[in-house]
C-alpha cells in the first residue's frame, strides 16, 4: 500500500538515478568546499517544477535573502518535472550544475559519490541540530561518511477507505484495519462478498511496502540488497493470495498512483493511500465518496510510517560556497519551512516545527484532522526507500513482483531474481 507521491505536489515527480559516468569521478574526499567567509556573490538556485504554483513565494524569499546579505544575487532556475534527473545528469557531466539544487535522496547519491555534493557534516555541521534527526539522515549515503543535502519539506499520509463499501461487505466501517493481517483479511472478505467486483487494494507492493512490513532492505554496508528474506517472501505470498482472490485490483500490475486514485474515486477500490490534498479532490470530484470517506493510519509493522523527503544540495564545486550554504540553509530554516507549509499540504523537517498549533490543534475539519495526524507520525517517520535504490531497480522489482502474482515464478524465486538484478545495478553504480 504505497503512499502516493502526489502528496508532494508536482515536485515529487518520479526520478531516475544518475549514472556515475556522467558525473566525473570523486568519493569520500570530495564535497568539502570551504563554506567559511563572507556571504557574497552571484549564485544559481534550481527547483523542481515549483514556479507555476509558488512563483511569488520564491521571489519573495530570494528578495529577503538578498536584502539580508547585501552583495548577493540569486538567479532562480525552475526545471520541469519531466526529465529532471536527466537535466541534472547533463549539468553534472558538463560542469554546469547550479550552486544550489532541489533534490531527492536518490538524486543525491550519485552526485555525492562523484564528489559533486557538498558534505554538510563538514561544511555546515552547526545547522544539524535545527532538523529532525530522521530528516537529516535521509541524505546520507550507505558506505560513505557525511550528509549531502539540507532536508527540506516532508510528507506522509493516511489510508483512506470507503465506508459504504465496507458496510456493504459486512465489515465494520467504524473499525478499519490497523495491521497487515487485518487489511489482508478484510480484503479477502470484500472480494468474496462482492464476487470479486470490488478490490480493496490497487497497487502491488513496492520497496517502501517491504520496509514498512519490517523487511531488512539492505545490508548495513550498503553493498547488497536483502529484501528476499523470509519476511519479504511472506509479504509477497500474501499479495499473491489477494491477487488470486481479486482482492487486489487486476490492473495493479500496471497501476500508477493516479490510476489507483481514479479507481478509488469511482468505487472500484475500497482503500487507497493519500494526503490532506486529496480531501479537496474528493469533495469536488466525488461528493458521494467524500460523505462516506474513512480515514485511518498508514499500516506499518515497525511502528514508523513512511515519509517522503525533499532536500536542498550545495554543489561542492561552487565558487561561492559561503553564499550557497547560507542560501540553502535559509530556504530550509524553520521560519521559511513553516511559511511554505502553510501554502501547500507539506510538512517542515525542522526540529520543533511540528509542535506548532498549526500541526497540533484540530478544528473539526477532515483536512485539519489529516494534517494533525500526519504531523504527529512524522516525528519518528522513516524514508524506507533506500537512497541507493534507483529507478531501474524499482522497475526490476516491479517486474519480478508481477511474475510472482501471475504465478510465473514463486514469491521466493521472484525476490531472489529481483535482489540479484538490483545488486548488479548497484555494482554498476560504483
UniProtKB/TrEMBL annotation:
<dbReference type="InterPro" id="IPR006059">
    <property type="entry name" value="SBP"/>
</dbReference>
<dbReference type="Pfam" id="PF01547">
    <property type="entry name" value="SBP_bac_1"/>
</dbReference>
<keyword id="KW-0732">Signal</keyword>
<feature type="signal peptide">
    <location>
        <begin position="1"/>
        <end position="22"/>
    </location>
</feature>
<keyword id="KW-0449">Lipoprotein</keyword>
<keyword id="KW-0564">Palmitate</keyword>
<dbReference type="InterPro" id="IPR050490">
    <property type="entry name" value="Bact_solute-bd_prot1"/>
</dbReference>
<keyword id="KW-0472">Membrane</keyword>
<protein>
    <submittedName>
        <fullName>ABC transporter substrate-binding protein</fullName>
    </submittedName>
</protein>
<keyword id="KW-1003">Cell membrane</keyword>
Amino acid at each position: 500500500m504505497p503512499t502516493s507521491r502526489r502528496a508532494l505536489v508536482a515536485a515529487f515527480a518520479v526520478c531516475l538515478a544518475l549514472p556515475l559516468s556522467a558525473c566525473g569521478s570523486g568519493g569520500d574526499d570530495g564535497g568539502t568546499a570551504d563554506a567559511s567567509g563572507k556571504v557574497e556573490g552571484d549564485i544559481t538556485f534550481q527547483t523542481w517544477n515549483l514556479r507555476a504554483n509558488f512563483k511569488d513565494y520564491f521571489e519573495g524569499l530570494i528578495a529577503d535573502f538578498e536584502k539580508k546579505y547585501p552583495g548577493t544575487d540569486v538567479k532562480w532556475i525552475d526545471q520541469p518535472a519531466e526529465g529532471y534527473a536527466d537535466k541534472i545528469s547533463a549539468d553534472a557531466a558538463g560542469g554546469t550544475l547550479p550552486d544550489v539544487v532541489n533534490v531527492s535522496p536518490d538524486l543525491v547519491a550519485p552526485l555525492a559519490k562523484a564528489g559533486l555534493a557538498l558534505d554538510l557534516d563538514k561544511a555546515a555541521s552547526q545547522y544539524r541540530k535545527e532538523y529532525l534527526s530522521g530528516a537529516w539522515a535521509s541524505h546520507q549515503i550507505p558506505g560513505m561518511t557525511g550528509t549531502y543535502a539540507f532536508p527540506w519539506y516532508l510528507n506522509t499520509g493516511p489510508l483512506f477507505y470507503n465506508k459504504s463499501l465496507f458496510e456493504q461487505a459486512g465489515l465494520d466501517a467504524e473499525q478499519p484495519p490497523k495491521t497487515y493481517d487485518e487489511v489482508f483479511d478484510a480484503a479477502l472478505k470484500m472480494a468474496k462478498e462482492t464476487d470479486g467486483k470490488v478490490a480493496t487494494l490497487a497497487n502491488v507492493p513496492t520497496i517502501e511496502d517491504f520496509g514498512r512490513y519490517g523487511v531488512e532492505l539492505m545490508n548495513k554496508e550498503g553493498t547488497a540488497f536483502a529484501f528476499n528474506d523470509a519476511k519479504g517472501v511472506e509479504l509477497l505470498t500474501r499479495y499473491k493470495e489477494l491477487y488470486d482472490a481479486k482482492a487486489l485490483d487486476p490492473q495493479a500490475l500496471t497501476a500508477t498512483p493516479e490510476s489507483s486514485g481514479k479507481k478509488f474515486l469511482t468505487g472500484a477500490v475500497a482503500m487507497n493511500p493519500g494526503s490532506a490534498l486529496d480531501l479537496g479532490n474528493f469533495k469536488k470530484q466525488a461528493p458521494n465518496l467524500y460523505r462516506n470517506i474513512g480515514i485511518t493510519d498508514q499500516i506499518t509493522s515497525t511502528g514508523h510510517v513512511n515519509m517522503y523527503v525533499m532536500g536542498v544540495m550545495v554543489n561542492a564545486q561552487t565558487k561561492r560556497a559561503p553564499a550557497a550554504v547560507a542560501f540553502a540553509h535559509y530556504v530550509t530554516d524553520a521560519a521559511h519551512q513553516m511559511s511554505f507549509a502553510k501554502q501547500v499540504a507539506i510538512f517542515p523537517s525542522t526540529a520543533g516545527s511540528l509542535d506548532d498549533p498549526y500541526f497540533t490543534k484540530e478544528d473539526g475539519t477532515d483536512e485539519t484532522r489529516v494534517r494533525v495526524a500526519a504531523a504527529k507520525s512524522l516525528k519518528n517517520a522513516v524514508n524506507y526507500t533506500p537512497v541507493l535504490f534507483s529507478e531501474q531497480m524499482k522497475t526490476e522489482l516491479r517486474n519480478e513482483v508481477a511474475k510472482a502474482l501471475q504465478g510465473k515464478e514463486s514469491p521466493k524465486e521472484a525476490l531472489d531474481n529481483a535482489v540479484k538484478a538490483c545488486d548488479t545495478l548497484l555494482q554498476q553504480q560504483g
